[in-house]
Each structure stands twice: as C-alpha cells, then as structure tokens.
Amino acid sequence: EFKVPIIALSQLSRNVENRLNKRPILSDLRESGSIEQDADLVLMLYRENYYNSTSSNKQITDFDDVELIIAKHRNGPVGTINLMFNSSCTKFINCE
C-alpha cells in the first residue's frame, strides 16, 4: 500500500532439530504465523555443515556451502540458490 519494504527476522522453532531433513520450511518460523501468511517473500538460509559437524570435530574454514531457500515468493518462483559463504569477509558468493 505504501510501497515501503519491511524486513522482518525470525528465529526457527526447535522442531527443525528433531527432523531428519534439517532444511527449514515455512512452518518452522517460530511463533510467526503472521509472517508466513502475510509476507510477500520469505528467504531462509541452510548450512549443512552446521548440522553434520559435532562440536568436537568442527573445523574452522573460511568457506562454507550455504543454500538460500526461497520458501515463499508471491510474485515469482520458489526454489534454492547455492551460495558460498566466505566467513573471513562476511560475504556470500553466488556459485552458479
């Protein structure tokens, strides 16, 4: 209505920790049903190494694979974009 973008951040519920597939989905938004319902665009980040590494064998690396999940898009397609995260520069790099 006012043509002003609003960015809202949300934590994920702990339900994601109890599933085999740890990729976040819309219903994982913690106590944020209104975000799921009203948002035009919902983006989520998923880093497989976060869930597959144990605290005792976590390796510190400058680069890590990240999936940018377009979970909801009222005006376009949903899907996944593969990115590389460069932690030393705090920068996401498109892999495609």
Automatic annotation (TrEMBL):
Name the UniProt key words of this record, in alphabetical order.
Answer: ATP-binding, Chloroplast, Helicase, Hydrolase, Nucleotide-binding, Plastid
Record GO terms (molecular function)? ATP binding; DNA helicase activity
Q: What SUPFAM superfamilies is this protein classified in?
A: P-loop containing nucleoside triphosphate hydrolases
Gene Ontology BP term (one) = DNA replication
The residues covered by the SF4 helicase domain are 1-96
What's one GO-annotated cellular component? Answer: cytosol
Q: Which domain of life is it from?
A: Eukaryota
Keyword Transmembrane assigned to the entry: answer is no
From the Swiss-Prot or TrEMBL record, give the protein name.
Answer: DNA replication helicase
Per the UniProt record, the source organism is: Chaetoceros neogracilis
Protein's gene: dnaB
